[in-house]
Automatic annotation (TrEMBL):
Family (UniProt): Belongs to the iron-containing alcohol dehydrogenase family.
Protein's UniProt name: Iron-containing alcohol dehydrogenase
Entries under SUPFAM superfamilies matching the protein: Dehydroquinate synthase-like
PANTHER family associated with the record: ALCOHOL DEHYDROGENASE (PTHR11496), ALCOHOL DEHYDROGENASE 4 (PTHR11496:SF102)
E.C. no: 1.1.1.-
GO molecular function, one term: oxidoreductase activity
Cofactor (UniProt): Fe cation
CDD domains listed in its UniProt record: PDDH
One Pfam entry name: ADH_Fe_C
Amino acid sequence: MAFALCLPQISLSGTDALCALVEQLRLQPARNPLIVTEKALMQLGLHDTLISQLQMQGFDPVIFDGVIANPTDHVVAHALACYQQHYCDCIIGFGGGSAMDTAKVVRALIANPDKQVHDLEGIGHVQKIGPLLVCISTTSGTAAEVTSNAVITDTRRHVKMVIIDSAIIPDIAVNDPTLLLGLPADVTAATGMDALTHAIEAYVSTAAHPLTDHSALAAIKIITKALPKAVQNGQDLAAREQMTNGQFLAGMAFNSAGLGLVHSLAHQPGATHNLPHGVCNAILLPILCEFNREVRTQRFADIAQAMGVDTQKMDEQQASKAAIAAIRHLSEQVGIPSGLGALAIKETDIERWIAPALGDPCGGSAPRSATAEQIRALYLQAL
Ligand SMILES: [Fe+2]
């Protein structure tokens, strides 16, 4: 048996990570990076240090700031056109999952000019690796800087296309907690719960192995402690740094162990109603944990322990249920809405999510598969 662990070549973390990145880039032949990012981040001046340091070192960065939340195939096309018009030679995704996913898919299209975004949907359709890709995370959750996944909305079909390929793992991942200090509490909460979902889905996945287990449990432990602190006080640099580490470890785990039905189900309201990915995950997480509990009882007992529950006097069943209670408590503590109903979702919205949820590739490593009827019932519970 062989265990695979797929990671970026270089991962830079800590308060000097941005400076360390510029040092690393000096060793590369590329000199004309396209920075793929969001307007809101530009307005906050988050890129200023990076851009000035790049310019000081003789780089000529070009900025594409047209990324939106839940990025679409159109956004990817615009970013690709910008890369080509300015004769760029490498890509820096700077932002949350949306910016980094856009950057990853631009890289794939540069190397595979005969393909469109929808041709890349699914597992292993990228084929050729593109130019140097750096991903700098400004949230603590998606772990897009670590992973081989990208999610892009197909504007024609109104579905989220999940692209999974080792050819889109960034070459360099950057987590600098100083970039997170201004992140609003609701975004901190949503992205942090996304990271917790990654760790839990990886831990109970059918593809979990000893290396992913250690990083998943460590991530659960760190996120449970640090997330409430980071939500309560965004300027808490120690909590921010712990969250960058926690979400990174969760990314390491799920990039090799895969995810599960929480993500498959969460992608659908995200696509049709443009809802935050982390919020959809957080709402669905305890429901799917309950669904999976009977086939992963011991693992959920481990999760309870990692979340700080004293399970010594509990049997396995009690401890596994305690994990779900701990997840609900953490969600409430950080202000996640109680259900999709609170986000204006109605029962009539559910039907069109069932087929794409069944076809979503994240479910491939789920510990328990679900029928269309079960998926409908799970969505109803989440209302
Ligand atoms: Fe996620």
